[in-house]
# Entry
Amino acid sequence: MKASVTWTGNASFKTTSGSGHSVQLDGPPDHGGQNLGPRPMEMVLMGLGGCSAFDVMSILQKSRQNVTDCTVALSAERADAIPAVFTKIHLHFTITGHALKENLVKRAVNLSAEKYCSASIMLQQGGVEISHSYELHPAD
# Structure
């Protein structure tokens, strides 16, 4: 896996993935940024959410669950000192679908957290306390 990061002025950077997709990162205005994109640590948090959501949806689809929507709300705490690493992260899944089986949703969330989500496991090994919760909603 490869990526590149190119400075685009002030506190702004264009990042490009090995697969050719780009994201503009920017720092906060008090650090010379212009709020043109997410902060780098926000991207780490978004990456974790995407990785875990990908796993959960894959597992639920293989379990033949009729999911119509999946969202993950993430909240994180960071250390007060430099480096301001994440200390705690919570992922809350909201799964909507037809005749969803709660035991299968719980299993999917747990498998992602404990076995499949590389981002989650990497952060946990680095000392981040990660927790998960979920709620189910019937589809209209």
Summary: The radius of gyration is 17 Å. Helices lie at 40-62, 102-116, 118-125.
